[in-house]
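Intended use. Records such as the RND efflux transporter entry shown here are meant for training and evaluating sequence-to-structure methods. They are not intended to support clinical decisions.
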Amino acid sequence: MSQKEPDAGDADLVHHSVIKRFEQFFELQFERFRLPALFFFGIASVFFAFQAVQLEPEASFQKMVPSSHPFIQNFLAYENELRPLGNVVRIVVENRKGEIYTPEFLNTLKQVTDEVFYIPGVSRGGMKSVWTPNVVWNEVTEDGFVAGQIIPPTFDGSLEAAGQVRTNVARAGIVGTLVANDHRSAVILAPLQEVDPETGEKLDYARLSQRLEESVRDKYASEDVNIRIVGFAKIVGDLIEGAAAIGGFFGITFALTVVVLWLYSRCWRSTLATVFCCSLAVIWQLGVVRLLGLGLDPYSILVPFLTFAIGVSHAVQNISTMAVERMNGRSNIEAAKATFRVLFIPGSIALLCNAVGFSTLLVIDIGVIRELAISASIGVGVIIFTKMFLLPVLMSYLGVSPAALAHQARRMRGGHRWAHVVARVTDKRMAWGIVAAGAVVLALGHTASRDLKIGDLDPGAPELRVDSRYNIDNAFVVEHYSTSSDVFVVMVKTEPGECGAYPVAATVDQLQWHMENVPGVEGTSSLFSAMKKVLAGQNGGDLRWESLTRNRYSSNAAHRLLPSELFNSDCSMVPVLIFLEDHKAETLIRVVDAVQRFAAEHGSDGIEFELAAGNAGIEAATNSVIKQSKPLMLGLEYAIVALLVLWEFKSWRVTVCIMLPLFITSVLCEGLMAMLGLGVKVATLPVIALGIGIGVDYGIYIYNKLEHYLEKGLALKDAYVETLKTTGGAVALTGVMLALGVATWIFSDIKFQADMGLLLTFMFLWNMFGAVVMIPALASLLIGNRGKGAGGGIAVTGTMASPKALQANP
């Protein structure tokens, strides 16, 4: 048996006396409490597994929006009145063989309308279709106004009756809204209720989407009829459906992880113990999320996936250190203790930085992002327990296989030519070149990132792929209907009973004219658009009367003939509908600026302009919150991570060495997003935070080991060679493990998951490269040759034991 290395440990423990005492206490109790610890982890795992199996995917319209933003507050104040303009599903029933005015097609349309009417979650009173009684036609005749339903109760299904429907559609002026411009399809508008008034339960978007597919599309689509469905609820439903494939991706990642870990360690014991602990972390996380009353929405369903990858990437350090300590002659228990000692501070700080990367997302006032932050922070928290405490206990029992020890011996005896090549970055001339190259890359990334936009940059649902069924359906609606599905609503607030007064009418009319001249606006509509037609009808249909009137009696008479959805119950609010070409970021910015300028010039004590409702108004509010919160989030994350690094290493120079590569990666990520046409939105903003919090791990592990060898008296270059031989290989594998964990997302049917996978893969690999190359180069320039050695030999305090001798003395 060879002599044990007496100084195996972490140099940082010397500088942190309180932490050192805690670590020493744990070491003293390690052997005594191994069995109780296993019993505790076993009971806790069963409990959390029971909770986890009860967790179900969920989504909420209100969680997707910034609830405290003024736009959303204004919308919620009039939610009942504006429900048909908010969360609405549009079901398009298309006649593949011709126009809709055939008895057979109209009968099918009636059946679809009735089917949708009875779907739970639909606000039945707000439904609209050519079959619903709230859609009417009106006409001016010699006898005055004549009105009726588009399809009257006396409809008998004859050809004559179907022809009359064509006439009624023209009278009602619903071509382009409820009936396509080419008359080959019709729309059913189904507003949704977030809470079921009968049961009090939240709307289940997954079940609603499934019901729409099974009871509408699958049931009525045929060779003659095509069904298309669009709306926020359908987007969420498709996202949840696509997220079901995450299980397959997880299986692929799990298998790849096992293979890579075994290739690195050549030890089934270490590999299976690592995978087991990281799988427990996922189970604990899901159980805690369930106990907190949270769910898994389409945006946070990837978090357990990420938790597993993070856990494995950190556990690689345990595998590497355990093998090294066994080769230094320690028994299984002593090697497990030494592993805990060596990794306690860097591992804990790295995981805390991970948690910070997630928790800073809490400053963004959007429910799904905050729940993602909480869920991910919980995941990192449980990794601290399973990786830092459970894994050493398991390894103290399992040990390391002879094959692993032989593999480690070959690795330690190897020439490590690659380590000597990489370590040349510590030479002053090479270091200046690396820093200059980093500056150039930073400048290029910054130049590209200036084109980065906030919000969606594509029409339709950017969360889904361009060729997805939803985006194909949405493109059909945009092409065949005049009124866009992207609606921005301005609420004009007045004194009660005054919403129809002439000053209000004149101001709203000016607003509509003003907005119709804004690029990106297709048209506008309001109470007064309809009132003009009614006033003309009251005057014999003379188009010269199709204008606003100062006569209050005339306007009141017109009011009585208009749908109540054009104003609220006490006539103190008039919604102005602005139909947009799309909901791209640039379009929304132009619209919001134009409305706000108009409001500043024309607002008064009796007339207030409140923004905004409609799906485009809600999107504008979301973009605004993200734009305001992004600098604060990044500032907090950089500040807290930098303080944690400074606390560990007690040096601002070391902090700069570790943080600067992270900053470069963050800027490059934003430049890559701009080049790929990705905007900063709910789906992509978390990526930037995650890349910083997780990327700092590499730097912490690299410099912690480098500091260890510098403290032993080695020159910087020699110290870095030894660092690369031990931690360097594990860090490289960590980068690969994390990249593998998220790279499979790129093949997801859900585009935002694919985008997240691509960006995170880039950030993990680039952060690893920056840690291995830039940190030593910066250290060479900022810290210099701190080691006491003269750049020659390596101080060896013990001899390496043979694998056979180690197996004889476990």
